Amino acid sequence: MIFVIAPNIRASIATASFLAFTVVLGEFTIASLLLKNTLPLYLAYAQGRNPQGAFAVGIVLIIVSTIFVALSNRLGKVVRA
């Protein structure tokens, strides 16, 4: 498992993290240039003013997104069955 799966996973994780980084950076840049207040832009500004509040909002967003992913996973299994 270490010699077969781990080398293949490393490349996938590196590619996925690079894609996620570029999408987030692109969304932040476009929103900043168009002067739109989106969630990443709001969190970046809030982190400068109130770091603890921005951290709390980030944790809540992670929990909510995890719940949504779990629900969609469960609903996908129910629909297929």
A few lines on this structure:
By secondary structure, this protein is an all-alpha fold.
Please give a structural write-up:
By secondary structure, the protein is mainly α. The chain is 86% helix and 0% strand. The chain is built from 3 helices and no strands. It has helices at residues 5-33, 39-49, 51-80. α2 (39-49) packs antiparallel against α3 (51-80). The longest helix has 30 residues, at 51-80.
Mean pLDDT level: 82
Cα end-to-end separation: 31 Å
- Counting H and I runs of at least 4 residues, what is the number of helices? 3
Low-confidence stretches: none
Percentage of residues in DSSP E strands: under 5%
Biggest pleated sheet: none
Number of DSSP E strands:
0
Give the overall silhouette: extended
Helical content class? over 70%
Radius of gyration: 18 Å
Order of helices and strands: HHH
Helix-and-strand structural type: mainly alpha
Core attributes:
mainly alpha; single chain
Topology:
Blueprint lengths: L4 H29 L5 H11 L1 H30 L1
Helix pairs in contact: 2-3
